[in-house]
Amino acid sequence: MLKLNYITVIQVVSTTPLCFILTKIIIMVAKKINFVNYPNPIVASHQEATPYGGGLAIGATLFIYLLLQSFHTQIASKFILILVPVLMIGLFDDILKFSPLKKILLQVISAVPFLFYYINSSILLSSIFLLFILFSQNAWNLIDIMDGITAGISFIVFLSAGIILLPHNELELYSDLSFATALSVLGFRFLNR
């Protein structure tokens, strides 16, 4: 039987408006400091300068959510250690435009906290986790230029993961985090069409 924790439900649902507000703020700041991606002839639908940093709004929302969850469970604080390096690599890549080799090396380094979290796993399983992280990060980056398609796909993926994990009490944090991610992305999506 599923146990409903109203505080967690409120925190999960509040990720949508929080991410919407943070995205608005990041858009304003990015435009003010000229942190924008200018139109690209390769992408015909890209006709005006688009602010960078949307992922930062989603990441900041999840950081706040995990911080609130860390008062209840220690696992949430470990996820913060996993989230921060990934966000920083993404932000620095937007600023510095890393070469593909440097970017993949930094992505491997950013995945190290995740691998430490699963330190009891075999080398094979850790390698599979690492490849999954790298494939996921780069798959999201490949479709990121397509007018919000990343947000739509992410919403569906994380909502589905939350639903799949929901019946398993021992995976409650993962289910809640999946729902929080899906709803954060939804808040971002309103401003990324």
Layout of helices and strands:
Elements lengths: L5 H8 L1 H18 L3 E2 L12 E2 L2 H16 L4 H23 L3 H18 L5 H21 L5 H17 L6 H18 L4
Antiparallel strand pairs: 1-2
Helix pairs in contact: 1-8, 2-3, 2-8, 3-4, 3-8, 4-5, 5-6, 7-8
Compose a concise summary of this entry.
The model has no long low-confidence stretch (mean pLDDT 83).
Could you describe the 3D structure shown?
The chain has 193 residues and is mainly α. The protein has eight helices and two strands. Strands 1-2 form a two-stranded antiparallel ribbon. It is globular, with a radius of gyration of 17 Å.
Compute the average pLDDT. Answer: 83
Number of β-strand runs: 2
Q: Describe the strand arrangement of the main beta sheet, using strand numbers.
A: 1-2
Structural class comes to mainly alpha
Over the alpha carbons, how many angstroms does the gyration radius reach?
Answer: 17 Å
Could you give a short account of the major beta sheet?
A: 2 strands, antiparallel
Number of helices: 8
Which tags fit this structure?
193 residues, mainly alpha, 72% helix, 2% strand
